Amino acid sequence: MRKGIVAIVGRANVGKSTIFNRIVGERVSIVEDIPGVTRDRIYANASWLTREFRLIDTGGIELANASFTEQIKMQAQIAIEEADVIIFVVSGRESVTREDEFVARMLQKSNKPIILAVNKIDDQAFKDSIYDFYSLGIGDPIAVSGSHGIGIGDILDEIVQLLPQVEEEKEEDVIRFSIIGRPNVGKSSLTNAILGEDRVIVSDVEGTTRDAIDTAFEKDGQKYCVVDTAGMRKKGKIYESVEKYSILRALTAVEKSDVVLVVIDGDRGIIEQDKHVAGNAHEAGKAVILVVNKWDLVAKDSKTMQKMENELREQFKYLDYAPIVFVSAKENKRVDLLLPMIQEVYANSHKRVSTSVLNDVLIDAQTMNPTTTFNGGRLKIYYANQVSICPPTFVLFTNDPQYLHFSYKRYLENRLRDAFGFEGTPIHIICRKRD
Ligand code: GDP
Ligand code: GDP
């Protein structure tokens, strides 16, 4: 299920990052620590009640040498393009400013749900100042104090109310995929090559409230949707070159996809920024394909491909399940392999295995390679269940999860992969104590 995206906007110093930290709080979920991937302050997972969402602090995305007005215009634009719900923060310690009005007008035009948070209302004495902000025409202001943690629950309630019910909206038989990578690796070229001429483009859906522009098409009876080609088509906007923005765009595109194509420039090789992109794809738990583009530019001998493959495996160890494809978008070479592969990894990420076969595989695995003592005990696995798909997630009921050594977990994961064929999808194994 897609998590909703919530963005915080507002002029400098109103308390955006304070509120961001309050909302994210202890709930920042760090799935795994991936070397080379630095976690951005501007983007985090959050949850409230049963809803999970992603929170963006647009204040963290800065344009070099820009005026305050240009800065905030860009930030509001990003919020409008990326978010399902926008939190507009103003300061209750000051009256309405020109910049507040400017942002309010931009947001009004967007038709996105907006929560107006009047911050720095630290005690009742300031409470009345929130009424001034009705003049922004955004609706009822909510009094909050980021630094004292007041009113944050009200904002969270409001977010949960306003987030779209994405499950109902999703069309069952459409495979949604995105093409991500640093600038200039060939994402646009690849999109065009995939869409080609023989694909029937079903629709060019201009921004419903949620998505930017997605392209739906059909090939060999399968419906697909390329997520987030908007950023590629509308190239040339000043902020396209802001690195944090391109990272953010990749993150939101990944969130909206079933399958992610991580594109590397085969001619330039792997650079730091690629690791960031790949790490984010992995963490989202989506099916992943590694695409090495511009292979036409590479001087090749019989070992070149293997060398590149080794390097990718070495640099992206955590993506060992992702198939690698070498293509040239420009010369349209091997691009036709991508859709069948997308179909396959999609199917793998949606695979459900039967409980009895699953348990047979795990019994065999333990017979072949029994557990050893770790943390003062030996792990016994009583039985296992697959609890979800996307990614396939298994719960092992055991005598004590503490006894599970990570290398044994790795071993079990490999056994499951051998038995069921989960190419292209991460799988999660959760260990529980049997009550
Ligand atoms: P941003 O630039 O919008 O991200 O604002 P910050 O979160 O960095 O906050 C700007 C300043 O306002 C900092 O000095 C914060 O300590 C202060 N601040 C943030 N929230 C509150 C609040 O609820 N009450 C008061 N009195 N100060 C706050
Ligand atoms: P994006 O920024 O990732 O969307 O990259 P573009 O699709 O705009 O491509 C960047 C540049 O690389 C353009 O000049 C493309 O013509 C070129 N390019 C893209 N794919 C290939 C390829 O497979 N081979 C070669 N030689 N050039 C390519």
From TrEMBL:
Family matches, as InterPro entries: G_ENGA (IPR031166), GTP-bd (IPR006073), GTPase_Der (IPR016484), KH_dom-like (IPR032859), KH_dom-like_a/b (IPR015946), P-loop_NTPase (IPR027417), Small_GTP-bd (IPR005225)
Alphabetical list of CDD domains matching this protein: EngA1, EngA2
Annotated GTP 2 binding sites: 181-188, 228-232, 293-296
GO-annotated biological processes: ribosome biogenesis
Domain EngA-type G: 4-167, 175-350
One annotated GO molecular function: GTP binding
Function: GTPase that plays an essential role in the late steps of ribosome biogenesis.
PANTHER family, alphabetized: GTPASE DER (PTHR43834)
Protein name, entry field: GTPase Der
Organism annotation: Longibaculum muris
